[in-house]
Amino acid sequence: MSMEKFYEDRVVAFIDILGFREHVKQTLHNSSHARNLQRVLEFISKLKHDNDEGILAQKELGKEVSVFSDSIVISYPLSLESASFYLLLDISHLQLEMMGLGILMRGGVTIGELFHNDNIVYGPAMIEAYELESKMAIYPRVIVNPMVLEEGIKKAVHDLEDELEHLLGLLEIDEDHQLFIDYMFQWQEIDDESAYFNALDLTRSIIENQLQSLKNPGVLLKYNWLKRYYNKTLDKLDTQYTEGRYL
Fold first, then answer.
1. Does 143 lie in the same domain as 83?
2. Separation between Cα atoms, residue 210 and residue 215, nearest integer Å
3. Residue 155 above 50 pLDDT?
4. Residue 243 burial (C-beta neighbours within 10 Å; 0-12, 13-18, 19+)
5. pLDDT tens digits, residue range 53-110?
6. What is the four-CA torsion angle of 129, 110, 83, 66, rounded to 10 degrees?
7. Residue-wise pLDDT tens digits, 108-133
8. Residue where one domain finishes, among candidates 186, 206, 239
9. What's the domain range around 109?
10. Rounded distance between C-alpha atoms, residue 200 and residue 216, angstroms
11. Do 175 and 206 fall into the same domain?
12. Are 14 and 126 in contact, with CB atoms under 8 Å apart?
């Protein structure tokens, strides 16, 4: 007797708010920070509502969103055209939104067997995505298993070369050769140009403040990485926008 096919082949992302415990501690003596954290959690909660019940709900297409306090899981069935691209774009939008609120995120994206329905999500792909976030990402970045690209170009809206170009346009290769989502450079995904540069300036202030005040070597490592990524992003932007913004 053949075994019932229980899992589905999906592309999945596990994403976490970096330093959530410290953010909560700050809410005890900083009402502004408390309001900001509330906005962040409301935005994350809205992601699930909009996917499941919103006007442009995508759940019927197979997209699933689960929210667990400070963590988010998003997945698409690999049978959906351009599933990898749509997932990477979703994460890029999420990170840009969080950048504007002064929140950093870390995560992992992979493909594999997964059961994902509402807030029930488990399977080999979930374990791998979680381990990419917890053991491999290290810095405030969302790293991507190269298999996401390989599978992403097999069933796509565009031809192979165009789809690969779209996927690579959302990614960057880090110093340790890990692929990660290059959210900070996705200025074209924000309608208001000034909002994008305000978010960049906020990120710059956060990096400066943390590097001046932090003493924990592990946390300093993360913000030094963010400083390098921030400056590399400015290198890729037009000089008329980046003058005076470098760290």
1. yes
2. 9
3. yes
4. exposed
5. 988 889 999 999 999 888 999 999 999 999 999 999 999 999 999 999 889 999 999 9
6. -10
7. 999 999 999 999 999 999 999 999 99
8. 186
9. 8-186
10. 24
11. no
12. yes
Residues 53 and 87 reside in one and the same domain: yes
Beta carbons of 183 and 92 less than 8 angstroms apart: yes
Q: How far apart are CA 33 and CA 29, in angstroms?
A: 9
Tell me the β-bridge partners of 113: 9
Specify whether the backbone of 229 is left (phi greater than 0), alpha (psi in -120 to 50) or beta: alpha
Residues 203 and 179 in one domain: no
**Total number of residues shown for the chain:** 247
Residue 120 and residue 86 share a domain: yes
Structural domain count, the chain: 2
H or E stretch at 179? strand 179-181
Q: Are residues 97 and 166 in the same domain?
A: yes
CB of 124 closer than 8 Å to CB of 112: yes
Label residues 156-190 b or e (16+ Cβ within 10 Å = b): beeeeeebbebbeebbbebeeebbbbbbbbbbeeb
Q: Residue 32 sits in a domain of what CATH number?
A: 3.30.70.1230
Residue with tokens 């990524």: 229
121 and 236, same domain (yes or no): no
Identify the CA nearest to 72 among candidates 100, 50, 102.
Answer: 50
In a domain, 2, yes or no: no
Residue with tokens 């330093």: 19
Kindly state whether residues 130 and 243 are assigned to the same domain. no
111 vs 105: CA distance, rounded Å? 20
How far is the C-alpha of 90 from the C-alpha of 1, rounded, in Å?
40
